[in-house]
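Handoff note, outgoing to incoming analyst
You'll be picking up this chain. Sequence as last confirmed:
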Amino acid sequence: MKVNHHHRGQKPLLYKQTAEKVRNEIVQRNLKPHDPVPSEGELAKLYAVSRMTAKLALQMLEKEGIVYRMSRRGTFLSDNETSRSNAAEKNSNRPEKKLKKKRIAMVFPNMDDYTARIMASAETEARKSDCQLLIRISLNKEDENECLRELYEDGVDGIILYPRGRTKCSEKVLELNLLHYPLVIIDRIFREVSLDCVYHDHYQGTYNLVQYLINKGHSEIGYLSMPFDGVTSREDRYKGYVQAMLDHGLSISNPNILLHCNEEYMNNLNAPHPQLQAYISNHSSITAVVCADDYLATSCLYTALHMGLAIPEQLSIIGFSDIQLSSLLPVPLTTARQTTEQLGQAAVNLLLKRIEKSREGAITIKVNTMIVERSSVHTLCSRVESKS
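Most recent structure output, in case you need it:
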């Protein structure tokens, strides 16, 4: 697996690549002598390049005698038989490129245990299909756009993008989608556009966690979350909590729900968090709390321990994600595991399907989570016992 951090080194001349694509377009459209060739503006939109790049590409083809240009009228296919057969011949050489391994890329915002496991499963799946997998790490939104642009212009067959924490897709993603370029988003849904995506079923995962607590005899169950800020996974997890409570006839008390927990805890996870301290102090009737992710659950656990509470006897805590830290806490955390193996495999297979020119509408694949039982949940009584 090749891991390429983003560099702005030497790049192939973009206008030459564009000229090659125009040759291909001429043959595919079966243009006849004197038929109009796409204009600079059309080529710029078609291949997501600047008008200057498109202009240089047409000038190159004009010098080769493949096209001719007429002032204020446009560009037309030349009547030069030799030049036109030249274009077809150059295009016919393209299958030789197809005989090489397909190249697909994954773009991630960072490298951690979770993303590394996704990469590993994607690499295994890519090898099964004899594909070469490239990895790019983007530093920010602008760098992500640049990574996508370079990969597209370099002729990579398709891209898997993990825009973690992003609420809106970037301009480059929208451009590639309009070009019908094979692109799969993982672990994120964007409302403004229909895109192929593979993500964990956050709604069902949280629903299952709440049901698990209910089966352990808990009925006063709180919920903690960071602000949604348009992040669909956070919204889905909260909806799963609400629906599970309603389906089991349990009341949803607004004071038991905190949806705007600030994320200062990320600076020091094992320090008490004032907002969580106040929440726990004011909600002594709660016997269990579901947290939107494992980092928040970790902060909640350390805060409760600093307050002198026995975990899980006085407060059961449950998380979501199963990050590596979860099993290493003073009280190992029960959580929902996001299965990275299925996520990586499904993303690669969906991308390869698109590369093979599948024309279905946008496909969404939901990957199930699984509950990992550790020590942070106390059994009050089973549901069977509570009914007797």
